[in-house]
């Protein structure tokens, strides 16, 4: 009987289903973490690097220190930035935080669409219309007090 107890104590029983579910949950959490946090951050960093590389003379930029200016000259990995008040500073290209884009000019409207919007808006043509609810106090039938 002692041999039977000894063999039972040394025999390992494994629960493979519990270990496989734990492993599956860990892998799923890592995948979720990758797609929600790591991948978007790396894409933003890649876009930022591409913008910095494509910054040329005449582009408005912001440095990592917060200085905003326009690139006036390039020489290798150095750029000269004008701040607008006559000051020119030399920065390494790595110091460019982002390239600022100028707002796009409004697009022209087609002739057919422009005809719709000619003239004053309805109700603003200068003619007197019916009194508005604010002009008379309908609950008491008298003019509101003037401020």
Give structural notes:
- The structure is a single chain.
- With 147 residues, the protein is of the alpha+beta class.
- Among the domains are: 19-52; 54-100, Roll (SH3 type barrels), CATH 2.30.30.
- The protein has 3 helices and 5 strands.
- It has a 5-stranded antiparallel β-sheet with strand order 4-3-2-1-5.
- The longest helix has 38 residues, at 16-53.
Tally of individual helices: 3
> How would a textbook summarize the main sheet?
5 strands, antiparallel
Structural class: alpha+beta
- Return the average pLDDT rounded to an integer: 76
Keyword list:
flat, alpha+beta, 147 residues, 3 helices, 5 strands, 5-stranded antiparallel beta sheet, SH3 type barrels
Summarize the entry for a quick read.
By secondary structure, the chain is of the alpha+beta class.
Please outline the helices and strands.
Layout: H1 2-10, H2 16-53, E1 60-63, E2 68-75, E3 78-82, E4 88-92, E5 96-100, H3 111-116
Antiparallel strand pairs: 1-2, 1-5, 2-3, 3-4
């Amino acid at each position: 009987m002692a041999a039977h107890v000894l063999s039972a104590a040394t025999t390992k029983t494994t629960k493979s289903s519990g270990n496989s579910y734990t492993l599956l949950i860990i892998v799923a959490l890592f995948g979720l973490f990758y797609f929600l946090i790591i991948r978007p951050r790396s894409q933003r960093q890649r876009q930022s690097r591409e913008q910095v590389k494509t910054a040329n003379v005449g582009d408005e930029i912001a440095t990592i220190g917060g200085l905003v200016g326009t690139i006036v000259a390039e020489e290798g990995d150095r750029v000269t930035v004008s701040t607008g008040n006559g000051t020119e500073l030399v920065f390494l290209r790595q110091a460019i935080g982002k390239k600022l884009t100028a707002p796009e000019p409004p697009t022209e409207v087609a002739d057919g669409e422009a005809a719709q919007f000619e003239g004053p808006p309805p109700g603003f043509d200068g003619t007197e219309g019916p009194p508005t609810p604010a002009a008379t106090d309908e609950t008491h039938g008298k003019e509101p007090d003037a401020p």
